[in-house]
Amino acid sequence: MPKIGAKLLELRRRRDLSIREVASRSGLSASAISLIERDKMSPSVNTVSAILDVLGSTLNGFFASLESTVGYSPFYRSSELVEIGNPKSISYRMIGVNHPNREILILHERYGPGADTGEAFAHPAHEGGMVIAGAVELTVGGRTRVLQTGDGYYFDSRERHRFRNTGDEVAEIVSAISPPTY
Fold first, then answer.
1. Peptide bond between residue 179 and the one before it cis (omega within 30 degrees of 0)
2. Where does the chain hold its CATH 2.60.120.10 domain(s)?
3. What is the CATH architecture assignment of 82-178?
4. What is the DSSP letter of 116?
5. Domain 4-55 is classified in which CATH homologous superfamily?
6. Which residue from 13, 18, 73, 152 puts its CA 20 to 30 A from 119's CA?
7. Residue 27 reports pLDDT greater than 80
């Protein structure tokens, strides 16, 4: 299993930057950077993106380099899924991080009660998924629907969209995004 923190540490050292410099430029605390680099804290995608901006890399480039550090296998145990979200609010566990020439992003998503992706956003891709537990409110291009366990969705991600758990229990989705955004 690739370690995100170790790879970030390697990038920072190659650029001869201190933790304080990365923290200052990224808007994060030095202690957060240190915890992330030691794999003691699971950073959100936005946090990784902010660090990578300082380090002169992109999410695509970063995860592509992680792919090359792990031998390919078509099978993934739950413990081998890479967390690219925030397990305390919205967890995004990535399936197939080490697959060569990956053309689809497959995620196991978990939304805590009240978790929300925030302001509606858009990106060039298509995405689809199925709610496997709980319920999620999905807004796509101004249309909103609450999806229950067993319900699915598919849309062009260039339409602004937002996910929100309006319930009192954890909601889970298995989703796919193509082309992969990370």
1. yes
2. 82-178
3. Sandwich (2.60)
4. B
5. lambda repressor-like DNA-binding domains (1.10.260.40)
6. 152
7. yes
Q: Which two tokens stand for residue 114?
A: 């009240």
Work out the average pLDDT over 146-173.
96
Contacts of 135 (CB under 8 A, 6+ apart): 146, 147, 148, 149, 165, 166, 167, 171
Dihedral sign, CA of 26, 127, 41, 13? negative
Q: What does the alpha-carbon distance between residue 128 and residue 138 come to, in Å, rounded to a whole number?
A: 12
**């319920």: which residue's tokens?**
135
What digits encode the pLDDT tens for the residues 103-149? 899 999 999 999 999 999 998 999 999 999 999 999 999 999 999 99
Residue 159: half-sphere exposure toward Cβ, Cα within 13 Å: 14
